[in-house]
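Q: Give me a protein?
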Amino acid sequence: MATITNPGSLVEAPNYMPDPKNSRIAVAMSGGVDSSTVLAILKNQGYELVGITAWIVSGTGRCCDNGVIDAVKICDQLGVEHHAIDLRQDFAEGIVRDFHESYARGETPIPCISCNNDVKWGSLLAYSIEKLGATHLASGHYSRLAHQDGQFGLIRPKEARKDQTYMLWGLTQEQLSRTVFPLADLTKDEVRAIAEENNLCVASKPESQDICFVSNGMSNADYLTRVLGEKPGEIIEIESGDVLGEHKGSFNYTYGQRKGLGIAYSEALYVVEIDPKSNRVYVGTRDKLEGQKAYGKDCNILNSSYINDDDCFEAMVMIRYNMDAVPARVKLLANNEVEVEFNDPVDAITPGQAIAFYDRETGSELIGGAWITREERA
């Protein structure tokens, strides 16, 4: 990350928008209502635009069905040129392969964050700048982009339930300087209303919540079994060591899982440990889920002004999407690793998930994040 002068908190800074006179914005279009509305908003604001869609999946992937076609329709309707870039091989060799390998290691990955880092703000942004002459990339993510004294930062958007800052912790200052988030100050209902006012054909298109490369009608477990093969193993009660049942692959489980265990017990049991080497899944009562510390790798800090001389800072922390942030102390370690100690124990610290840090005072500014690697129990 580039060395910059930190202005401190960016919470009060307005959503950054570049000058239309000096900007050519590439709009990352999935064919959904959010990105399509972004195109309409920027068109109405007088920006020079080009639509761009990453072709990343072949076949019946959930969120990519007809996405390119719908993106082309919207661009045609609004009189904006459209380009599609074939990133299927890069996506398969990077995001999809990492997804498989992560599950095989006993983790629960979030491929959308990796896609943001490597595809949308990697290959797509680079192509937009180098081939299409764009100055910025616009996205339909719900996040506010603050800019003050040469620094960019991410702030939670107007509508908390649509907040996607957790998914963007890996972006760098250079990437943020080339980014536009036009939906920062809008609710989802307002976005759909704008789409309807502009007669966009996707105004009522439902949202996609699933992994794009998992085919329609296929569960994650079915998909992983097809890719990794069926691997029977034991389900063990962690305290007694009793074998309670058998599974078809430890990769089908995640920390904190309660449903679908296929075992009977006198108390409610949760997945508390996954050992891919022995192919065992350990279960226990809810208290066995609790952990006081989490560790992360590939840490990225967006605003270093929050960090003290001991490479520590107090923060509000999320260890999964849509959870309530909780207070913790964060310490930066060597090699972009990080140690997080929570004020109170938290449930299901899950390797492969992301851990995101927000400012302690308001909980609104994203300070940074990392990938969870391991945890120590309370």
Observations:
- The first strand starts at residue 24 and ends at 28.
- The CA atoms of residues 40 and 78 lie 7 Å apart.
- The longest helix spans residues 111-130.
